[in-house]
Amino acid sequence: MKYNVVIIGSGLGGLECGYILARHGQRVLLLEQGKQPGGCLQSYHRRTQTFDTGFHYVGGLDEGQSLHTAFKYLDLLDLPWHHLDTDGFDHVTIGEHTYAFAEGYDAFVERLADDFPSERTALQRYAELLKQSSAQQFSALNPHAEETSSHELMEISAWHYLNENFHNPLLINVLSGTSLKMELRKESLPLFTFLHGNSSFIESSWRLRGDGSQIVNKLASGIRSQGGEIICNAKVQELMESDGKVVYAVCSNGEKYESDMFICDLHPAQICQLVKQSNLMKPAYYNRINRLENTFGMFTVSLLFPKKRLRYFNYNQYIYRKANVWDFYQDKTSVGGVLVNCHVPEDDSEYTEQIDLLTPMLWEQCKAWNNTQVGKRDGEYKEMKKRMANECIELAGNFIPDLTEYSQSFTSTPLTWRDYTLTPEGSAYGVRKDFRYPLQTLLSPRTPIPNLLQTGQNLMLHGVHGVTMTAFYTCAEIVGKEAIWEIVKN
Fold first, then answer.
1. How far apart are CA 310 and CA 89, in angstroms?
2. At 323, phi and psi to the nearest 5?
């Protein structure tokens, strides 16, 4: 059977592309080499509990906000979303002091201006820039619009912008303190990435009651109900090119799938590995893609608690030992910052049974075990994980005094991510964007082969919000800007 579109990889980007294109009447096939779809959104089970791989919260779901129209089209708004506290959805603790991020741009400014009154005007300018970046996220799809300032923001350093616009170093750390959801790097992070990584959460912030696989299951069900197919345990080992286009995908079991168009929800370097012989992908392209650097990974500690032991808190808590938010993770001697994420009680009680602690982890910290697999790593690796887990727990204990009363704990490293999600170097946020080299690191959905597209967090932006944006941009290459703009223009 020949398909209109074959999608390789069923992470969020692949699933969203599959759903959008199926709704547009395309015959769609998703090929997933793992046992289940979902990529970094997939969940896993330990005894009676379910754990998320990478999903923790999302922003901008209310009507009129940046993600509402897209999620409405994708039929994701009726999932059990739980609204975080409007007067402080994120709390940032630096040393002995805690600061809250309030929902809504005006409230956001007022709340922080209470702590930093001399910076009120600068905070207002910053909030306007956040609002502008949110409003322009789909504007490049408008076939009648003038060029926006997004490209310009890609060429500006986030670190330089903050230091030029704010005079108080502590406020710069506070404003950056919720950005464990991206890789803060003074020498490379574009302002574009920083703004988009923060703006939607200020609009409104949400957790799921239950695990992130609900998003995966809803999209997969929608694809199938519209005639699409998803095949798991289907590892694509080569994309065959002929006469200037990809003609079929070859799986490791020998199966071949023919299609007019192909979309890869993979790291760009992995796509290059699949196209083994090409007249269009020149050595210069391969070399450029293979030189791309990846963002850091995450170390995660999931803690389980006995019933009625830990009260649920309806916000995210970021904790730092010192005011060094932008580079604390480069100190490999101890954990200096952690995100405490609380799972919404599924029994409507006041108590949670699970929290996650997350801290950045550089690939160099686990590179020694690069050639090992899950369940087959030595005692030194286990000791390293135990030490880091204890440091995360100790730091988070400044916020939750009885944190040591958990009943069980589970840990994961970038190696775990690599093995289960096949993400190169266990990178949490994909290819590192660099304001010094915007054209090299901000990638187009297109490749040198006309009918081979790419999608996912490695292109423009990462996270649920960024990947969703990218999926619509990728689909516009197939069904046209006008058709996609009709979906997102409101």
1. 19
2. -80, 65
Report the C-alpha gap between 376 and 373 in whole angstroms. Answer: 5
Beta-strand pair 97-101/49-52: unpaired
Asked if 81 and 482 touch (Cβ cutoff 8 Å), the reply is: no
> What would the pLDDT profile of 349-377 be if each residue is shown by its tens digit?
999 999 999 999 999 999 999 999 888 89
Q: Compute φ and ψ for 330, nearest 5 degrees.
A: -80, -10
The structure tokens listed for 117 are 């009154």
CA 388 to chain centre: 23
State the DSSP string of 429-484.
S-BPP-TTSHHHHS--SB-SSTTEEE-STTSS--HHHHHHHHHHHHHHHHH-HHHH
Does residue 148 surpass a pLDDT of 60? no
- Biggest CA–CA distance in the chain, Å, is 67
Q: Which amino acid is at 81?
A: W
pLDDT in tens, 124-141: 999 999 999 888 888 888
Contact criterion met (CB below 8 Å) for 453 and 263 = yes
Q: Element (H or E) spanning 219, and its range? A: helix 213-225
Angle (CA) 247-251-257 rounded to 5° is: 35
Give the residue-averaged pLDDT of 80-108. Answer: 97
How many angstroms from the chain centroid is the CA of residue 319?
21
- For residues 42-69, give the mean pLDDT: 84
In this structure, how many other beta carbons lie within 10 angstroms of the beta carbon of residue 314? 15
Q: Give per-residue pLDDT as tens, 292-308.
A: 999 999 999 999 999 88
Q: What is the pLDDT of residues 7-24, one digit of tens each?
A: 999 999 999 999 999 999
Parallel, antiparallel or unpaired: strands 28-31 and 2-8 = parallel
Question: DSSP letter string over 249-318?
Answer: EEETTS-EEEEEEEEE-S-HHHHHHH--S-SSS-HHHHHHHHT--B--EEEEEEEE--TTSEE--SSEEE
Token pair belonging to 129:
């820039």
